[in-house]
Specification:
Number of helices: 22
Shape: globular
Strand order of the largest sheet: 3-2-1-4-5
Strand content: under 5%
Bound molecules: ligand DLZ, iron/sulfur cluster
Radius of gyration: 25 Å
Number of strands: 5
């Protein structure tokens, strides 16, 4: 094996030296203990890491997302080298960079003549397909190892799903609690006598509550280089780079986790669903980019949070809510993704056909809630769960935006987004495009919900109490218009009984008014039918 790229070293007399393995680490596999690195032979083996154009543009990611990942990759390579491991690192602007995983893997195999190529299964279907081809195309055997950073393997999830009519997260989550022992009592019962304390996690934010200062990391020299590279190469992508403050090492990601546990976890549960102007992070952990790139693992973040509970430093509703997101929801959506791909990406149960309005990029809208959420997304490559689901997502659902456009938007704008986690969230939770596989009903809400959970409506050009007319909050008539447009598809859903009974009581004139307002508004914002 050559040591570090370039030429190949051969032993004397034309005899090749004993050959080691080539071990590929992808940008979201930055975990020292990742399967492909286990049993590494520091004398013989080479780790391959590649920055490739295709991955930066298969959707045009937010600038901060690219900068975060490339900088985290460079730091990770440096740490491996510090640990005595040989890393062949191909940077984005390296001469002859082939621009794709496949191209770079083939080049590296030709360069190193390894005995075999070892990889960890990737997060995305797209890359999984590539790896299947490598078995054919590669001159050496390819060993694909399971990604056991996940608590539930793909096979285990498929076993769980087998024979079930519906796949409700709650039952899966209980299995994961039992499997990990997190928040379990010795008698096998859940801590606090219940599995789920979600009902306690919907409080309104008190007006004068103090929100902790955001955790921010100053870019070091490596990050500054990457920021300049991203500005140079991806200046036309969505998003600001100025406020870049992400951790890019495992050490700093641990600091972010510790600060969350010490400063925010206490209130995380109570105000999980709250939204406030100019407070993009509130009491959220803001660790998803670290978790999904591998700088932190699911187990360690849950253990840190559980310890705070056991030490009496955090309430059960907060701790259970957090752990449910990680070992429940996150594992569950990954399971669904692998169970249902590739067909899942094409689902469109509500036959939504309209175009994504421009304000999802420009934030140029009089709707204060959407404006704030898009502005914060652009500034931070982040928005919290309720902003994503009940403002940005709710609008896309009510307006009938085509799933493909919504899905691509979410995938590219958030620093934590990879298709395995983002696609089921968008098609299943946000848009009901999978027809109810994930959610038992669409998460559709009128302006009243946003008003209850935020302070956005106070400064809005629209009136949240008005149901129709020029000044009415668009969420109000779009909500009823959504029910009308989807009457055939949704009125039989038992959980939609109440709204459809209310709709049935509406006069024909009122219905027409709603439909006319919705049509006028959707035309104005450019949400036209995408033929
Ligand atoms: C998202 C991303 C980007 C922007 N760039 C790279 C890259 O240059 N090299 C790399 O190894 N990975 C990158 N990634 C993450 C990959 O897209 C990710 O590993 C696959 O989507 C599989 O989940
Ligand atoms: Fe959003 Fe409607 Fe409230 Fe304006 S009035 S902030 S559009 S919910």
């Amino acid at each position: 094996m050559s040591r570090g790229g370039g030429e190949t070293h051969e032993g004397g007399g034309g005899q090749a030296r004993q050959r080691g393995s080539l071990r590929l680490v992808l940008g979201d596999q930055l975990t020292p203990d990742i399967a492909a690195l286990r049993d590494i032979d520091r004398e013989q083996d080479v780790v391959l890491m590649v920055e490739v154009h295709d991955e930066t543009v298969y959707v045009p990611h937010h600038k901060q997302k690219i900068a975060f990942l490339l900088s985290a990759m460079r730091h990770f390579a440096q740490e491996l080298r510090g640990d005595g491991i040989t890393v062949d690192y191909v940077s984005l602007e390296a001469q002859e960079n082939a621009g794709s995983f496949t191209g770079e893997v083939m080049r590296a195999v030709a360069r190193h003549h390894p005995e075999r190529l070892i990889v960890t299964e990737p997060g995305e279907w797209r890359v999984w397909q590539m790896m299947q081809d490598w078995r054919e195309e590669c001159a050496v055997p390819v060993e694909i190892r399971e990604d056991d950073r996940f608590i539930c393997s793909r096979a285990e999830f498929a076993d769980w799903a087998e024979g079930r009519k519906s796949y409700r997260m709650e039952f899966f989550y209980r299995e994961m609690r039992r499997k990990t022992g997190l928040l379990m009592r010795e008698d096998g019962e859940p801590e606090g006598g219940a599995w789920n304390f979600d009902a306690e996690n919907r409080k309104k934010l008190p007006a004068r509550i103090k929100v902790p200062k955001a955790t921010a990391f100053r870019p070091d020299a490596i990050t500054q280089d990457v920021l300049a590279l991203v500005e140079r190469r991806f200046g036309n992508h969505f998003g600001d780079l100025e406020g870049f403050a992400w951790a890019v090492t495992r050490k700093d990601a641990r600091t972010a986790l510790t600060r969350f546990v010490n400063e925010r976890l206490d209130n995380y549960g109570d105000y999980q669903d709250a939204m406030k102007r100019d407070e993009p992070f509130l009491f959220h952990a803001v660790i998803a980019p670290y978790l999904n790139a591998g700088l932190l693992t699911a187990r360690e973040v849950c253990v840190a949070v559980e310890e705070a509970y056991r030490a009496g430093r955090a309430p059960l509703n907060a701790v259970e809510g957090f752990i449910r997101q990680v070992i429940g929801w996150r594992e569950y959506v990954r399971g669904i993704y692998w169970l249902k791909m590739p067909d899942y990406a094409g689902t469109n149960a509500l036959e939504a056909k309209r175009k994504l309005p421009d304000f999802y990029w420009s934030a140029d809208t009089p709707m204060a809630c959407l404006r704030a959420c898009v502005e914060e997304t652009r500034a931070n490559a982040y928005a919290h769960h309720i902003q994503r689901l009940m403002v940005l997502g709710n609008f896309a659902l009510l307006a009938g935006i085509t799933p493909r456009e919504v899905q691509e938007w979410y995938l590219l704008v958030y620093a934590d987004a990879y298709e395995w986690v983002e696609l089921p969230n968008v098609h299943g939770m946000v848009l009901f495009a999978d027809g109810g596989l994930l959610a038992s009903k669409p998460y559709a809400a009128s302006g009243a919900y946003i008003d209850r959970m935020s302070d956005y409506c106070k400064g809005c050009a629209y009136d949240v109490r008005a149901k129709t007319g020029e000044k009415a909050c668009p969420f109000n008539y779009l909500y009823w218009n959504f029910l009308i447009e989807n009457e055939d598809r949704l009125s039989g859903n038992p959980r939609m009984g109440m709204p459809y009974r209310n709709l049935a009581r509406m006069s024909e004139a009122r219905r027409e008014e709603i439909v006319a307002d919705a049509r006028r508004f959707l035309e104005e914002v450019g949400a036209l039918v995408d033929e």
